[in-house]
Design goal:
The protein is of the alpha+beta class. 37% of the residues lie in helices and 31% in strands. It has 3 helices and 4 strands; from the N terminus they run βαββααβ. Strands 2-3-1-4 form a 4-stranded antiparallel β-sheet, covered by helices on one side.
Length: 97
């Protein structure tokens, strides 16, 4: 079964306090959903139309698990805390088997 991934690139961070609140709430929600955070920030080399900003990659055992975790009450609470504190490109994608 192909894995599922959350891929998030932050275009702008307008409210670091909201991001900090989100960062406190998200790890327990991800762990509860079986996710493993593989990348948070770190070094970036952007090419073509890429954005050299904060990038986050979270792996799940399946695409369905990734979607269910996003829809979970715990992660929705984290999203409320984040609200308009950032502009980001967030995707849930299916890996190749």
């Amino acid at each position: 079964m192909p894995k599922g991934y959350w891929v998030s690139v932050y275009r702008t961070i307008s409210d670091p306090e909201k991001l900090a609140a989100y960062n406190r709430l998200t790890p327990p929600a991800v762990r509860a959903g079986g996710g493993r955070t593989l990348v948070v920030g770190g070094r970036i080399v952007a090419r073509d139309a890429g954005i050299a900003e904060r990038t986050v990659l979270v792996e799940f055992d399946s695409f369905e698990q990734a979607v269910a975790t996003y829809e979970s009450a715990a992660y929705q609470e984290a999203l409320v805390a984040l609200s308009d504190g950032v502009e980001r490109d967030f995707r849930i994608v299916e890996g190749v088997d």
